[in-house]
Amino acid sequence: MRLVERATELAQMLELLGECAPDRGGAAVISGGIGCGKTELLSAVRDVAAREGFLVLSAIGSWAERESPGSVMFQLLRGAEGPLGACAELAVLLDRVTRRHERPDTVDGHGASGFAQQTLDADTTGALHRLCLAVIGAAERTPVLLCIDDVQFTDSLSLYWLLRLLRRAPSAPIVVVVAECTLSKPAHPQLHAALLARPGYRRVPLARLTVAGVAELITDHLGAHAERMPAAACHAVSGGNPLLVRALVEDCRQAGEPTAGAVPQLVVGDAYAETVLSCIHRGRPVLMRLAQALAVLDADSESSRLARLLEEDEATMSRGACALEAAGLLDSGRLHPVARTAVLESLAPQQRSALHARAAVLLYQEGAPATTVARLLIASEDRGQPWAMDVLCEAAERHLAGNRVSDAHACLEAALRVCQDDEARVGIKALYAGTAWMLNPSISARHLGELATALHDGRLPDRHALTLAKFLLWHGRFDEALEAVDRIGEGQPGCDPAAAAEIRATRELLATTYPGSVRRPPGPPGGQRWAAGRAQDDPRVLGAAALAHVLAHGPDDEAVADAEAAMRAMRLSKSTQEWIVCATSVLEFADRLEAVANWCDHWLEQARTRRVPLWEAEFASLRARVALRQGDPLQARRLAQAALAQVPAESWGVCIGGPLSNLVQAATRTGDYDAASEYLEVPVPAGLFRSRFGLYFLHARGRYHLETGRPYAALDDFATCGALMQAWRFDQPTLVPWRSEAARAHLAVGDRERAYELARQELDLAGERPSRARGIALRTVAACGADDGRLEPLTEAVALLRGCGDRLELAGALGELAHARTAAGNTGQARQELRSALRLAEAAGAVPLARALAAQAEGVPRGGSGGRAHPADLYLLSGAERRVAVLAALGQTNREIARRLAVTPSTVEQHLTRVFRKLGVRTRQELPTHGIPLDGAD
Description:
The chain is mainly alpha-helical and 938 residues long. The protein contains 47 helices and seven strands.
């Protein structure tokens, strides 16, 4: 490192050396945190002094040798026998001193004062005197520099000799430079007093590096690659400690080259962890114990608490904390997570557990929050305290309230291990299964048998019955689930209104998800304000009722309003997640695709923030289903794969039909039939077809069979899907348009009459309300009807599908409309519609449809009337292109458009070229004269 931010300090040291004369000495004390550059500065001073002709004598204090008599003195004088005197004589003197005082008896912590009170024998006194004279004699010939690093660890005998030397040579050209770690008070006050009396005394405090200093140090080491390492982040982690900065540089090197275009990220790895440990070990052993205590507590703690935990005096803890802070090892009293892990791992497992246990007892006695005490209990093996179970359960409740499911799960797991009461254990087991279910439903499955038995025997509290029913239904254990549902009923007489509302909402939720197993609550289903007062108080009821209404009667504005009101009133938590899914599904089935996509993205981000894998997986699967309805199979496939990455297929239970059907449909639409076939080979539980997810799976599998030339297999799936929907009274085409799909399968086997009958039924069920379901039904009616009657239903279908936002269904409808127009002789309009359809199909990655449309376009004659581009096709243009297109259609010249839009005529010409290509027109007369306003922008 270039001493960038040490220039002032180095200048002081050089000035001190320069002032040394035959009758003048000097002294300096360099102070700073561990690893903050003291040794480096001493090294620079020694190098300069050696070049200037000084006799350099240096030593390093060590905690391990602090009681070895003369260890520092021996380091100072060894190797300098020639300048100091005869080699043999000096060796004899050093040997005499060190052998006579192998274990000096210091009377206090400052060494020299205690040693000075001892009675030294004449030989020792004489030897020390002659050693002083040897240094003083050498100084008369050449100036001497005495350097001692980590002077706080100097042994008593060496310190006594050094003080004696300073008293014997107050004006000799001897410069003494010592370096010590910053503490709340000097380690050797007598030495400080003696140095302070020396001429030219300097006190050189070393601060840690600034951000600019860190940046320059990074540049020194990484050169042109310095941009890989953000200096501000490095400074925040290292505290400006040069030693730690170098360690982070090494971690950066080990990480290798970053991904092209990636934002530089600080890497904190093994080198940093090892350097932190090295820094702490360079202090007294109590410093490591203090660091271990801070790592266990993982919080800024007062010295009094640390002293009680480690059974040390408070002053020692305070000085130790100051040393760690001065070294940049602490941030607001806490270790960096990587450093914390390294410090904890420096403890043997039993020691680590014992320290956590002592900390738990201490914090419990101080009245610390349950979550804090619980963390320490979990990390310790001693949970035998009589209060441990209550603390762990309270902490679990607080974690659940804060959506910290993993932490709650760990608390409940620990509570189960210490619980000795069978009745309490069943309740804890139910809560534990609930948290396990949110993390990975497979974990909860192993506890369901015990809980179901407890419910049957009357040992499981009723409040857990419906939650247990959800778990049992998820895993396809329908008989046990029905017992749980029937057990709770509608709540006991006098039941709390909030509890009654939750019971009602839960039963409605289960009935809409598992209609083959759970009966609806009594009363008219959803949407008719069947419980207006309770619905207004509990948004969960409102969301569940809205979905029940849509499934039974189809979507309407009231149901959509209820669903949106419910979502606005709820925050994502364990008590709302399933009802949020209900409300979101209402918008999906009502064709509010842009709104539901935004809501899904919102809830998906919330799930990621809360780190609940099941929630993230469910919302990703729901968002994939919405992407399919938007005609985006590529995004749907990515989202469905993400859902299965969060929760593996074997953990989804009967709900595997959701993500799996999304994958099959997405792969089928993009022409990846091999992948679709592999997805269909994933084992699914038999109970799948007693849930709403079974409908999605049958629909997806039927589409795959139809696309791959197996219409009879497709008919079986569509017919089964329809039979279930009719039996469950969910026969709404907005859920699954099974009649339209079955009609196309009948067409494929040549049964046009049955196909047309199913298509007309579908159209009647879809009603007159503009919807995606009606658009699909109109397409099917046109496909099954007479050739001369296709233009009208297909024209309406295109308008409806364009309005609802399903780009892939729109592409198919445009292709069919183009075919009808070609048959009617309007090839110009047909070609434009085919171009639009082909662009939509290609953008969606729908390879089979794109190939069919391209082949169809080849068969359309190029003659015939041209016709104008459709105004709706303007959405294919950018904002600037739209403005140019509309002005050109109104008859303005390029120059007029350029003046109007404040651009050059050349720019206008370039925009028009792209407009003609995108819209498939050749002249300005074919541009639409209405549609997008002039100020429409991107």
